[in-house]
Amino acid sequence: MSELFDAVDALVASRSPLPPAEERKRLRVAHGLTLDEVAAALKVRRATVSGWESVKKPTEPRGPEREAYARLLRQLAELYPAPATPQEPAAPVPATFTGAPRPAGFADPAEARTLSTGEASEAAAMTATENTQTPAPVAAAPAAAPRPARTTRPSSTSRRPGAKKAAPVGTPAGGTDPRFENGPLAVVDVEDGKVLAYCVGGLVLDVPAKSLPSLVEWTLKEAKLGQPKLSGPGKDADPLLVLTEAALERYGLPVTLTEEERLAGRIPEGHKVVKQLARAEWKLTKRGFGPWARIYRRATGSERACVQLCIPSWNALDTRHWGEAGQLPPAELARVLGTYASRVMTPRGSTAVTGLELMTALHPPTRASEPDATGKRHSEHNPGSLGKDAIDPMNWPPCEVPDGHPVLKDLPRFHVRGPGEKLFEEAYDWARPMTDAECTLRHLVGIDVNMAFAAGANGLNVGLGEATHVKAPVFDPKLPGSWLVDLSHVDLSRVKVGKEWVELDGSLLPSPFTPKGERPDGPAWYATPTVAYAQELGYEVRPLEAWVRRENGRYLDGWYNRLRDAYLATMADLGVDADLTPEDFLAAMGGYKERDPELAIVVSAIKATVKGGLGKLRERPRGEGWRPGEPWRALSRPTWRPDIRAAVISRTRINLHRKIVKHAAFTGQYPVAILSDCVVYAADGTSPLDFLPYREGKPLPGGFKLGINPGLVKHEGTQTVLWGEEVRERFNAPELNLARYIKDGTVTDVDNGE
Q1: Which of 676, 739, 665 has the alpha carbon at shortest distance from 702?
Q2: SS3 letters across 219-287
Q3: Does position 283 have pLDDT exceeding 70, yes or no?
Q4: pLDDT tens for residues 553-609?
Q5: What is the rounded distance in angstroms from the CA atom of residue 340 to the CA atom of residue 601?
Q6: Segment 37-43 mean pLDDT
Q7: Which burial class, exposed, middle or buried, applies to 47 when counting CB atoms under 10 A from its CB (0-12, 13-18, 19+)?
Q8: In the chain, what's the furthest Cα-to-Cα distance?
Q9: Contacts with 106 (C-beta within 8 Å, 6 or more apart), sequence order
Q10: Which spans in 554-688 are helix H?
Q11: Which of these, 247, 649, 269, lies nearest to 429 by C-alpha position?
C-alpha cells in the first residue's frame, strides 16, 4: 500500500502549481539568489532555471525538479509576499530608491538617511548573497517590465534606522569575505552637500572624507571595498572609486582635462591635489594622476594599501566600449561596473588593460615555495605563467616583432620587410566580385562569429618562455612557434575535408594563409595553427627554419573560460540563452540591447576586453619621444608577447576558413566577403536559415551553427544584392568589402581596411 501512496504523492507533485515566470524571478531576486545557486540546489543547468523564468516563453519543470522548485518558491513567497496592489505594498519597506523610477508606495528619498560607516556592515549582511569566491552576478530585469523592487531580507538582527538603499540595481556583491562585504567598487557623488558612495546591490554609504587623501584612507580602512583574488597565488583586487563631476569639484579636481592634459594623459605634478597626496605620503604610479589613477603606499607585509580611481569625465570609460556608461546616474553606473567586476574583474584601466591584467590575475608570475629547512617560504616561479621578467628585447625572433623594435635597429631606415622576414598573422579583410548566379539571388546575409578571438584562444597551446632557433625543422603541429615555409602549393580546388578529398571552386575562396586572401607566392612566416591547417587540407609542409618554444602550455584557457562565462551569463540575463533553437535564438537576438541597456553596455565591454587584451600583447610605442630602434615601455612587461597574439589570430582565421570550406563542400555556396569574424553570403531570403544547412534542427557538423556560445554565429545584417552592386559601382570598387557595411547598409566612404 505504501508504494501506491508514494505513487499518488509523486503524481500530485508532478503537477505542483507554480507562479508566473515573472513572479518566480521576483522571488529569487528578492532573496538575493543567483541562477547558478538555484541550478546547483536543484541539480539542473543554469540555462534550465533561466528558461523557467523567461517572461516571453517560459519552460516548465517536470518530475522531482518541479516539486523541489515549487517548494523553494512557496518558502520564498512566505518571506516576500507580493504587493496587494501596485500602489499599496503588502509591507512598507524602510528603504529609499534612487536612480530609477521609484515604485509607488515606497518612501520618499528625503525620508531616509545614508548608512553611516558603522552601519554599513550590518546593512550589507542583510542583503549579501552566499558566494565563497567572486561577487554574485547581477540579475537582469525582465524584458519590457520595470525592475522588481528589492525586498529587505528578514534578519535576526534588527536593522538600524537610517539605512538608505538606491534603486534595485542587482544582487549585492559582498560574498562571504568580510573585508569586501560592500562590493568591489563605489561611485562617489555629492548630493545636497553630502558625499555619498554608491555601491553594488543598491547600498549607499555616507562618506565623511573632506579631502582626497582622507577619501583614500577611508576607502582602505572603513569602506570594505575590494574583490578576492582570482587565483591562489594572486592578489586581491584593490578597491575602485569612480568619481563623478560633483565629486571632482568637492575634492578640488578639474571636471574636464585641458587639451594639453588630455594628450599627456594626466594633470600636472604641481596640481594642488597631487601635492596633498604627496604630503600625506601617498604615491602615484608612473602614469601619474590621469583618468585611471592608482594611489598607493608601499606594502607592509601582506597588506596592500592601494586605491584605483576611475574618472568618467576625463574619458576613462571609452564610449566605443562603454557606450553612455559615463553619463549614467551613480546607482546605474555602479550596477554596470559592478556587474563587469563580478563577472570579469575589477577594471584596472581601459578594457584592453583589464583584459591583459586578467591574464596575469589568473596566472600570477610567482607563488610561495614549500617551507625550507627553517620553515621559511620564498617567492618562486609559478608554473604555467609568463614569469615576472620580460623577455630581453634583443632575444626576440626578428620575424615576430613589429617595425622599429630594437632587434631590428640595424636594418636600413626605409627597409620594408616582406612575408619572408615578418610574421603577418592578421584577421581577414577579403572580398570578391559576385558571380552571375549570385547576382540572380535577392539578398546578401551577414553572419558574425560570437567572441571569435576568445574562441580562438580556447585550448590553444602557446609559448611561455623564449624561442629557440632551428634550421630545417620537422614541423610539429603541437609545438608553438613561427615557421618559415612555402605554402604556395596548397590548391584550394582540391582539399581534404575530414578524411576525404573534395573538389571546390578555389577561385571563390580566400587563401587561409594571408589576411587579404591572396595565395602566397613563396616562403613566408606563419604561426603553428596556420601551418597545421595546410597539413589538415592534405598537403605536405617542409619548413626552412623556425623559432619554436619548447616551454609551452594552455595559458589562455582560464582567461577564455572567465570571459566566456561572463558573456553567456550577461546574454542570458538579456533573454538570450545558450540552449535556444535556431529560430528562437534569432528572435531573442532581435532588440536584446533594448531589454536592459545597462547590461548591454556590460556585453560590449566584455567583448572589448577580449580584443583589447589580445591587442595589448603586441602594444606599439605610444609617443613619449620614442624613436625607431629604441625600446618602449611595453617591452618591459612579461605580457608583451606578440607571438601569443599571432597564434590566437592565426587560429581564429583558420577556424573560420575551416567552416567556410565545409559549408562550400556541402552546399556549393561560397562567401562574397569576409571582415575579421563576419562572413557574407548571397541568399534568396533574409535570414541565415535561408542558406545555413539545418536538418531537423541540427547544423552541418563542423560548419556554421547559430547560437550564443563563443565560436557559434549570429545574424549580423541583411542587405539586397542590388544594394551591394550599387555600392561597388558608386565607388568603382568591384571588390569593396561589403562585410564592413552589411549591418546597417550605411556607406559613408570607401574604407580600405588600413
Answers
A1: 665
A2: HHHCCCCCECCCCCCCCCECCEEEECHHHHHHCCCCCCCCHHHHHHCCCCCCCHHHHHHHHCCCEECCC
A3: yes
A4: 999 999 999 999 999 999 999 999 999 999 999 999 999 999 999 999 999 999 999
A5: 9
A6: 86
A7: middle
A8: 95
A9: 89, 92, 93, 95, 96, 97, 149
A10: 557-573, 582-589, 592-595, 597-616, 642-667
A11: 649
- If we measure between CA atoms, which residue out of 510, 509, 486, 514 comes closest to residue 426? 514
Between CA 578 and CA 599 the distance in angstroms is 17
CA 41/CA 64 separation, integer angstroms: 13
Instruction: Grade residue 301 by pLDDT with cuts at 50, 70 and 90.
Output: low
Rounded CA-CA distance 466/548 in Å is 8
Span 123-132, average pLDDT: 36
φ, ψ for residue 26, nearest 5 deg: -60, -45
CA 98 to chain centroid: 28
Task: Give residues with Cβ within 8 angstroms of 669, minimum separation 6.
Answer: 663, 681, 682, 691
Give the burial class of 474: count Cβ atoms within 10 A of its Cβ; 0-12 exposed, 13-18 middle, 19 or more buried: exposed
* pLDDT tens-place string over residues 510-520: 999 999 999 99
With a cut of 70, say whether residue 644 has pLDDT above it: yes
Q: What angle do CA 247, 250, 254 make, to 5 degrees?
A: 75
- CB proximity list for 569: less than 8 A, separation 6 or greater: 35, 46, 137, 343
Q: Could you write out the three-class secondary structure of 422-490?
A: CCCCCCCEEECCCCHHHHCCCEEEEEEECCHHHHHHCCCCEECCCCEEEECCCCCCCCCEEEEEECCCC
Is pLDDT above 90 for 224? yes
Contact 552, 482 (CB under 8 A): no
C-beta of residue 334 within 8 angstroms of C-beta of residue 196: no
Average pLDDT over residues 211-231: 95
Q: Beta strand 379-381 with 366-368: parallel, antiparallel or unpaired?
A: antiparallel
Contact 365, 386 (CB under 8 A): yes
Instruction: Assess contact for 132 and 34: CB atoms under 8 A.
Output: no
Q: How far apart are CA 190 and CA 185, in angstroms?
A: 17
User: How far lies 699's CA from each of 135, 666, 668, 715, in Å?
Assistant: 37, 11, 16, 15
- State the virtual CA torsion across 729, 732, 738, 741 in degrees, nearest 10: -90
Which amino acid belongs to residue 25?
Answer: K
Which string of b and e fits 389-426 if b means at least 16 CB within 10 Å?
A: ebbebeebbbbbbeebbbbbeebeeeeebebebbbbbb
Q: State residue 697's pLDDT score.
A: 82
Please tell me the predicted confidence (pLDDT) of residue 256.
Answer: 96
Residue count (the chain):
754
Q: Can you give the pLDDT at residue 133? A: 38
- Distance in angstroms (rounded) separating the CA atoms of residues 435 and 446: 17
**pLDDT for position 22:** 86
Q: Check pLDDT > 80 for residue 421.
A: yes
pLDDT at 558: 96
Note the Cα 92 to chain centre separation in Å. 39
Give the tens place of pLDDT for each residue, 650-693.
999 999 999 999 999 999 999 999 999 999 999 999 999 999 99
CA distance 579 to 377: 48
